[in-house]
Amino acid sequence: MANIGYIQVNRYCNNQCHFCSNPSNWNNISLERGIELIDDFIKREYKWIIFTWWEPTLSPDLAKWIKYANDIWMENRMISNGMMCSDYNFSKKLADAWLKLVHFSVYSCHEKIHDFLTDTPGSWKKLMMSITNALKLWVRVQINTVINHYNENHLDKTVIFLTKHFPQIKHFVWNNLDPLMMRKTKTALSTLPNYDEASKSLLKAMAYLDSTNRTFRVERFPLCYMQWYERASTETRKIVKDEERMVHFLDERETIRQQWKHWEHDKLEACKNCDLNSICSGIYEYDNYYNYVNVYPRQLSKSDKEELIKKIKGIV
Ligand code: SF4
Q1: Residues enclosing ligand 1, CB less than 6 A?
Q2: What is the distance between the alpha carbons of residues 292 and 305, in angstroms, rounded to a whole number?
Q3: Tens digit of pLDDT for each residue in 190-249?
Q4: Eight-state DSSP code of residue 3
Q5: Of 3.40.50.1240, 3.20.20.70, 3.10.450.540, 2.40.50.100, which CATH number belongs to 4-313?
């Protein structure tokens, strides 16, 4: 099992994304608390630590935690909006502490759309510079993209653009928009995606990445919208492999240990007739936000389903 621990190091950001799922509350953790949390993950035999939300690069202690984790052989990475790392010397400081992997959040290949979604003019240009710097410093880069209304029709174009300019990038992650804690402004609510539209460009993006020997994962998207690539569903992989995640939040949630029940979201009546029901997470936040989404029950032979489970477990 590849268990992963998340540490929220602070809760403030230099972007203002309309759909941010962890809005600022100005909390942060001390150097000592960060070390305590890393030690706790070591004791639990977790394989990876992710420094995150938002924005880990604004923490003055980030390089110290990265170095500490490396010194005790704990694999670590960070998720970043790519604002601070546009400064080469800043990136070098993290690379010198042995940051091995960074997930940069890119919302679109179109500068205007990315800057609109981050509500921060100039953020796309800085992000591209951050990717350039990281790769120059031999830090591995992966891309996270929030699926939303404004990029739902060009998810494929975004991966093609990024792999053309940065061929070293081999792994992509799409997170379907999490509306639970986002702002409830008109603009924020307008970012909720149309699943049918998003599915079309997502399938093209996955086919392209597959054909170029790249890998990908998709979170919070039901399996009926990712036919042929069900193996890439983060939740389905966790269900099949019985993995867990632990997240140290910087708000009233504090520490959450996510196991099986966390990977299953809402199911509709029609899901009862779907052969993927037992390994599909369903629709996240159906009742409150995504009640306009349809489901398409899938019919699979027993052997096809077994084949899929074996693929996820890495047996075939
Ligand atoms: S019909 Fe329901 S169970 Fe089947 S893939 Fe869609 S959301 Fe999942």
Answers
A1: 222-224, 267, 270-271, 274, 276-277, 280, 282-283, 295-298
A2: 28
A3: 999 999 999 999 999 999 999 999 999 999 999 999 999 999 999 998 888 866 666 666
A4: -
A5: 3.20.20.70
